[in-house]
Write a structure and sequence with these properties.
By secondary structure, the chain is an alpha/beta fold. It has 2 domains: about 5-125 and about 230-365, 3-Layer(aba) Sandwich (D-Maltodextrin-Binding Protein, domain 2), CATH 3.40.190.10; about 130-225, D-Maltodextrin-Binding Protein, domain 2 (3-Layer(aba) Sandwich), CATH 3.40.190. Helices cover about 40% and strands about 20% of the residues. It is built from 15 helices and 13 strands. It has helices at about 55-60, 70-75, 90-95, 110-115, 140-145, 155-170, 185-190, 205-215, 240, 245-265, 270-280, 285-295, 300-310, 310-330, 350-365; strands spanning about 40-45, 80-85, 100-105, 120-130, 130-135, 150, 180, 200-205, 215-220, 230-235, 295-300, 340, 345-350. Strands 1, 2, 3, 4, 10, 11, 12 and 13 form an 8-stranded mixed beta sheet that branches. Helix 13 runs antiparallel to helix 15.
């Protein structure tokens, strides 16, 4: 169940190793007994475009990633945000075991840990709009792909995107074998012309790198055909939300995300900020990042995020499909209860904190 497994160790011109040690200290110290110190909460993130935003926020001083130090957004909400950067699998494990308060995770990968720890999706950060793709060599259509092995990471958004596209084309998934292979290995195999690697299912930066490196490679289909189904999010444990300062922490995280988005939209600061984002995400340069953020579409305002979570399509169609896929592929040990605005659910999509930040921004600027 990994979105970014091995990006940090895939040694190619566009990708430089950026590993880091997983944190081991307890998840949170939200006690206010320490002589009035602000309650401290942790957010785990791994390198992906809209999650690397939090590393950029620390770089520009909007927040301070260390315990006990606070930037202006933290002071505004009266909470101390502790950032924990690590690989994606570790993020999931830390959240599932209650060692961190909030995590950057997809709407698919949160379902399994939510079965054991009640979780609240406090905001979407982005959606895949071409960032996940099936790349082929010598295969020009679905009929040509039939019976051929497609290599990608099983039980991830890659397989979800693959099978959803087959479904949309009225194809039988049994006729299109999906073979388990890490995305880094799959991309490298195609780029180096390894025999019998004719189709791979990968995400950025592997999509960009493969199309540039392997002559004759092409995108057969991608996530543009399933708009707003693969969602990158920030999710918080209900137990952490219930602690003193928990709801303010949720708002501070959301506010931080939109502060960076405002920098990205600023004509005078946008390119510089995008370069900083690229430094956090696989060390990609400006031109590549301009492509990446087109294919990984950010929810740039609270209004955009609220519209997704409260939308009829997302609630009634997308999330039931995602849950069904996870249950059928045994990603979840049991059928998770997913709801919208229901604290009793195992995974609750809640726009309360988005709306608080939206109102706070409107109060200070006169608009959203």
């Amino acid at each position: 169940m990994t979105r970014l497994k091995l990006i940090a160790c895939f040694i190619l011109p566009l990708v430089l190793c950026a590993g880091c040690t997983a944190p081991t200290e307890p998840a949170t110290d939200s006690s206010t007994a320490n002589q009035g110190a602000a309650p401290s909460f942790s957010l785990a993130w791994s390198e992906y475009p809209s999650w690397s935003v939090f590393g950029v926020a620390d770089k520009y001083g909007m927040i301070d990633k260390d315990r006990g130090a606070m930037g202006p957004v933290e002071k505004k909400w009266g909470v101390d945000i502790v950032l924990k950067e690590t690989d994606y699998d570790t993020c999931i494990n830390l959240f599932g075991t209650g060692q961190i308060d909030a995590v950057c995770i997809t709407n698919m990968d949160i379902l399994s840990p939510a079965v054991g720890r009640k979780s609240v999706a406090i905001m979407p950060t982005s959606t895949s709009d071409g960032a996940d793709a099936v790349i082929t060599v010598g295969i020009d259509d679905m009929e040509g792909l039939k019976g051929k092995d497609t290599y990608g990471l099983e039980k991830t958004v890659s397989q979800y995107m693959f099978e959803r596209n087959l479904e949309l084309q009225g194809k039988n998934t049994a006729d299109y074998p999906f073979k388990n292979l890490d995305p880094a290995a799959a991309a490298q195999a195609m780029q180096t012309n390894q025999e019998k690697i004719e189709a791979i299912a990968v995400w950025n930066p592997f999509v960009l790198q493969t199309l540039r490196t392997r002559e004759g490679s092409k995108v057969l289909f991608d996530s543009t055909s399933i708009p707003e189904e693969i969602i990158d999010m920030v999710v918080m444990g209900q137990d952490s939300l219930n602690k003193p300062g928990g709801e303010d922490f949720a708002c501070a995280v959301i506010d931080t995300f939109y502060e960076v988005n405002r920098r990205l939209a600023d004509p005078d600061k946008g390119d510089e900020t995008l370069v900083a984002l690229g430094e956090k995400f696989s060390s990609l340069p400006l031109d590549d990042m301009k492509i990446v953020v087109r294919q990984t579409k950010f929810y740039k305002t609270p209004g955009d995020a609220i519209a997704l979570y409260e939308g009829e399509s997302f609630q009634g169609d997308t999330m039931p499909k995602v849950v069904q896929f996870c249950v059928e592929h045994e990603i979840c040990a049991s059928d998770p209860k997913v709801a919208f605005g229901d604290p009793a659910a195992q995974l609750n999509f809640d726009t309360t904190y988005l709306k608080r930040v939206q109102q706070s921004t409107a109060d200070s600027t006169g608009s959203e």
